[in-house]
Amino acid sequence: LRAAREGATSHIRQLEGSLTSLRGELEARRQEVEQLTTLSLRGDATVQEYMSNLKAMSGDLRAAEMRIADLVSELAGCQDALGRAAAESADLRQLVNTLDQERDNLQAELDSHAEQTAEMSSQLQALQAQAADTTRLLAMAEGRLAHADARATDSEAEVARLRNQLGAAMEQLQAVSSERNSLGEELRAVSEDLEALVKENQVGQAPSTVVSNELAATAQQRDAAAAEVRRLTARVNSAEQMVRSKEAEVEDLRRAYESLALDNRRVGQLEREAANREAALAARGDEAASLAEATRAAQAQINQYVMDLQVRLGLERHREELQRQVAGLDSQLAVARARLEDAGAEASSLGQVAALQHQVTALQKSRDVQASGRYLSP
Where does it reside (predicted)? Predict the structure, then answer.
């Protein structure tokens, strides 16, 4: 028992030494707990403030991230639209260049047609003046033609009458010529008889009364035949002159007919030329009007394309504005993330403080337990 008692005494001493050591350590821990409690009380308000700020910053961060996601989606859509707009803009620029070239070509062609139209207008005025003169000449020619037709009708009747008279005169001329020839023959025969009687009278030395009477009668017949021949010759000459005059009139009428026919053909040709030129001018006018309408349509299309291009440029400027907004939000997000990291660091530090507070609480409980055990021990 003594040995057991000594062993127990030694063990008690060890326990007392350990208790003294634990009491010193507990006192040190108590002071640390008091310090930590003070720090904890101070840290609670800071933690609450930090947690409130952290929650607010987390909300702002989530809102910013959602806004950034929306802006990124909108930016992607704008970039896609911008890509399509850029392709359409390139196509539109090429189309505008093509339309500009076509417009220039159309304008040049329109100017050329305008010059041609002006030239054709002057030609039309000249043609109209010429047509007026032609109409006046045509009216005069028609009057002359009507008068000539009347004259031609009268002339035809006159020609027929003249031809009948000419035929009758020719027949009469032939009859008179035959009669003149017959009278000439008779005159020669009478002259021969007279010469024979004269010779007989000269041979008989003294003419008888019978022979003298025959000579006188024969001389009278000769004189009468000579007078008839002269009269018939005058009639023949008059008839020949009348025939030549009528033939000249017929020739004048023929030339007048030919002149009127030529004038009529010339008037018809002028009318056809005027009609052809008016038709050509009308066709050129229609073509010029069509070109002008095509030019106006092309200009309207160009204006529409320019308006579309301006809309595309407005979208591009809007995209650039969105990019600037996204860049600003990125910088704000970077600041928020930095503040969040700082808050996280502070929260980590506060977490360490809280852990220490839990340790202090645990030590305080342990001290209270030990104190309770010490009070309960004999």
Answer: Cytoplasm, Cytoskeleton, Microtubule organizing center, Centrosome, Centriole
Over residues 75-118, the pLDDT tens digits come to 666 567 656 766 766 776 786 677 678 767 766 766 776 676 66
How far apart, in whole angstroms, are the C-alpha atoms of residue 228 and residue 181?
A: 11
Q: What pTM was computed for the model?
A: 0.34
Task: Give the CB-side neighbour count of residue 330, counting CA atoms within 13 A.
Answer: 8
Handedness of CA 221, 223, 226, 231 (dihedral sign): negative
pLDDT at site 231: 76
How far apart, in whole angstroms, are the C-alpha atoms of residue 16 and residue 29? 19
Whether the Cβ atoms of residue 113 and residue 287 lie closer than 8 Å to each other: yes
Dihedral pair phi/psi, residue 207, rounded to 5°: -70, 150
What digits encode the pLDDT tens for the residues 330-340? 676 566 566 65
374, 30 contact by CB (below 8 A): no
Structural domains in the chain plus CATH codes? 2-376 (1.10.287)
End-to-end CA distance of the chain: 21
